TrEMBL record:
<feature type="signal peptide">
    <location>
        <begin position="1"/>
        <end position="20"/>
    </location>
</feature>
<dbReference type="Pfam" id="PF07727">
    <property type="entry name" value="RVT_2"/>
</dbReference>
<keyword id="KW-0732">Signal</keyword>
<dbReference type="InterPro" id="IPR043502">
    <property type="entry name" value="DNA/RNA_pol_sf"/>
</dbReference>
<protein>
    <submittedName>
        <fullName>Uncharacterized mitochondrial protein AtMg00810-like</fullName>
    </submittedName>
</protein>
<dbReference type="InterPro" id="IPR013103">
    <property type="entry name" value="RVT_2"/>
</dbReference>
<feature type="domain" description="Reverse transcriptase Ty1/copia-type">
    <location>
        <begin position="60"/>
        <end position="147"/>
    </location>
</feature>
Length: 400
């Protein structure tokens, strides 16, 4: 999904063209068709980047022209700045495969695309409405936030669900929705911990997320049209937040051009003995992500400046990262966490302190009260079409 987001952000002319191959919905024929498409692209000198997934293929044309394709079975996104190159490639694809040219990218894998003068908005409004209908929640009262502040969910507490498969189905759908809705990522991560033995309280919390989505169904993630392709990274954790295991929740956000392109909310795999240790572990995950993102951008021909700023709100964690001297209080931390020090020494990133009030990752590590939730929501670029400057269009400028 990150590569789809980067395709939207980096495409120089913001021109996106979708082609859909019309085949029977059978898995084996689809996979054979997918392999044929990949072989055809290799023959046309399209290759997967060294650090990207095989679903993404790219080719350098004349000058600085770059053509990028994202192939999912037999659905294709085609983008680039050279319209002649794109038209020629579509012609070759049509000769080899019975493609249907959908012209502008408006819908792909359940994700809807809207355009404005200031950028592109990816959202899943239709998916949300279908989900609300399937769980008889189309007329429910909207909630202000994804999770209630005072509810502490624990495993195997309360009456077990009569039909646990309903809970699993709902959480699975919510998880898919996190591709464009980082604001529910923490809630979904929290609810996913109870899939094996869900109880009534867990289902009530999941329905509360649905109530929140009913009031924010048109929200999506926005990518601005800024030409500044610089990276910024934020990381944070909520120490010992799990009521069952006392493990910490950690998260990170990676911004490109001020737009959120990668994020994660996850419970840490080990117990941290202090808040500083928990935040240092979160920092190591963020550094690993930005290492990969910078290499992926290199595949696109985007040179990332060194010393990518990484922001953390804990001075002790920053001190651990900067100080390579062995210390009694940090000797138990695994060596893989010291990956941060290694990348810091390489010059990949620079460490900065950020105040608690400006720590946007709070939205990914804990349930927040309404005003704070919506403040960070806007900082992450999760907006509704009404928030965008200029008229919202179905297709980009210059495309039918």
């Amino acid at each position: 999904m990150l590569e789809l987001l980067l395709t939207v952000v980096i495409a120089p002319a913001k021109i996106l063209i979708a082609s859909a191959k019309g085949n029977e919905h059978l898995r084996s024929p689809q996979m054979r068709e997918y392999r044929r498409i990949c072989e055809f692209l290799e023959g046309r000198l399209f290759s997967a980047g060294a650090h990207s997934f095989p679903q993404m293929r790219m080719r350098r044309g004349y000058g600085a022209s770059l053509v990028i394709l994202v192939v999912y079975v037999n659905d294709i996104i085609l983008t680039g700045a050279d319209l002649h190159e794109l038209s020629s490639l579509k012609g070759f694809l049509h000769e080899q495969f019975r493609i249907k040219d959908l012209v502008s990218l408006n819908y792909f894998l359940g994700i809807e695309v809207s355009y404005s003068d200031s950028g592109v908005l990816l959202h899943q409004k239709k998916f949300i409405h279908d989900m609300l209908e399937s769980f008889q929640s189309s007329s429910c009262t909207p909630a202000f936030c994804p999770l209630e502040l005072n509810v502490k969910l624990k495993a195997k507490v309360g009456d077990p669900l009569h039909k646990p498969e309903d809970y699993r189905c709902l959480v699975r759908k919510l998880n898919f929705l996190t591709h464009t809705r980082p604001d529910i990522n923490f809630a979904v991560q929290h609810l996913s911990q109870f899939l094996q033995f869900p109880c009534v309280l867990h289902m009530q919390a999941a329905i509360h997320v649905l109530r929140y989505l009913r009031g924010t169904s048109d929200y999506g993630i926005f990518f601005n049209s800024s030409p500044d392709l610089s990276l910024r990274v934020f990381c944070d954790s909520d120490w010992a937040s799990c009521a069952d295991s006392r493990r910490s929740d950690s998260g990170f956000c990676v911004f490109l051009s001020g737009s959120l392109i990668s994020w994660k909310s996850k419970k840490q795999s080990v117990i941290s003995l202090s808040s500083a240790e928990a935040k240092y572990r979160a920092m190591s995950k963020a550094v690993a992500e930005v290492t990969w993102v910078s290499r992926l951008l290199g595949d696109f021909g985007v040179s990332c400046s060194s010393h990518v700023p990484l922001f953390c709100d804990n001075q002790a964690a920053l001190h651990i990262a900067r100080n390579p001297v062995f210390h009694e209080r940090t000797k138990h931390i695994k060596l893989d966490c010291h990956f941060v020090r290694h990348k810091l020494g390489e010059g990949l990133l620079s460490l900065h302190h950020v105040s608690n009030s400006a720590q946007v990752v709070d939205l990914l590590t804990k349930a927040l009260p309404g005003p704070a939730h919506y403040f960070y929501l806007r900082k992450l670029g999760v907006l509704s079409p009404s928030n965008l400057r200029g008229a919202v269009r179905i297709g980009p400028v210059g495309i039918g």
